[in-house]
Amino acid sequence: MKLAPLSWLVRVGTLSLCLMSAACIIITGEGEGEGEGPLPDPEEEPVVEGREPEVADPGSPCQVGDRGVVLAYEKVAEYATAVETQAQLDAFLGLYTDLGYVSHPVEAEVQYGVDSYRVSYCTVDAALPDPGTGERTRRKLAVATGMLSVPRRSEASAVVLYHHGTSVSYDDAPSNPSIEVSFDGPPSSTIFAGSGFIYVAPDYLGLGSSPLTPHRYFHAGSEADSATDLLKAAQEVLGDLEVARTEDLFLFGFSQGGHAALATQRRLEEELGVTVTATATSGGVFDVERFFLSCLANEEVATLALYASYVLVAYDTVYGVYGSTAEVFAPAYAGIVEGLFDMEHTFDEVVAALAPSARETLAPGFYAAVSGDAEHPVRVRMRENGVDEGWVPGAPVRNYHSPEDEEVAYGDAEASVAALNEGGGAVTIETLDGLDHINTWLQAMPRAVGWFRGLE
């Protein structure tokens, strides 16, 4: 296996210990640029989505040119041996078995101890509507966080860039190793890093230590930005830790993370010229519009009200798709829905505060309009953020999915796979029968490890 060059390292200055933690390293140095950057000329063609000029946010340490620059990193967990890593995974599985979420044994091949680091780095926000004009002309630099977990082995390791599923609270993010609070992070970190991969997982904007609210849910551009900028930052930290990586780069995404993983793969392959070895997803959402309409049509699964409401609130933040919540949500929820997505509530708290179905959560007039009009502004924006059309994945993509998935319909996944393959993609579904959404994910990760190993 050929070692990958440290081509993404940025020039840094001094290293100094954080005042609050002996394990935390602050990396300081000059950015590649300063100030707010050029503003678009109103006489020119409209700025393309995702290509708006990047500007510094007053009070933020990130300047123009600093994307992917490491601000600090600190060790937040360590498991000295494979036995300790397995014990962390077993603790998670035991807790969530007792809570009724885990129904099947998870057979992971944990072989290594693991050291985990929370990384703070610079990325960029989506272009938000100007409060005065409503125009979306600039993207502000932003601070984000993510997890870097390194297996305790002497050999060079391949990277798995992990994209987590839906979270509605700051603390429920991969960079938090607590199994009581963080759902995706602990099991995915122990399975992938414990199997010998370097694990890199963005929290996304609005989660972890990112101060932005709400999280930019199902916004493909910011998902890809936070992931690729963390990948660049992780390369710097790996160099500082003297950890060698191979040239193989694998992506994994669960649920919303399936959407984020394909957005990231598209960005890496089509814009950054980075080779992806393979991508695996579990219960992945690829067509945001189709997923939203499926949420409205399903009146039996209470969590779908959260997903439908979340994407509406997030898209209004990014695009300004409605005038007021009273236009969109039923009276019982119009006054509280934005507060529910302040990133301070737990998933269960949000579900309990909304109606038992997505349809009941919405105002009848809005439901009729959005479900009956394919050109409704909300649906247009959702189509713009789909990741299953308009490109051909260069690397193979395998989606682990169950016909019994209660949250992301198996038929929706089949439609997206067919769309991705129309242009010549190598995208497949591996069916896992008899599993719900969460248990499909837990069974998919060890299977992805085996598939990735065979492709190294």
TrEMBL record:
SUPFAM superfamilies with a match to the protein in the record: alpha/beta-Hydrolases
InterPro entries reported for this sequence: AB_hydrolase_fold, Lipase_secreted
One Gene Ontology term from the biological process aspect of the record: lipid catabolic process
Ranges of compositional bias, category Acidic residues: 31-47
Region ranges (Disordered): 31-61
GO-annotated molecular function: triacylglycerol lipase activity
Leader sequence residues: 1-21
This protein's UniProt keywords: Signal
Coiled-coil annotated residue ranges, if any: none
Gene3D superfamilies: 1.10.260.160, alpha/beta hydrolase
Protein known as: Lysophospholipase
Source species: Chondromyces apiculatus DSM 436
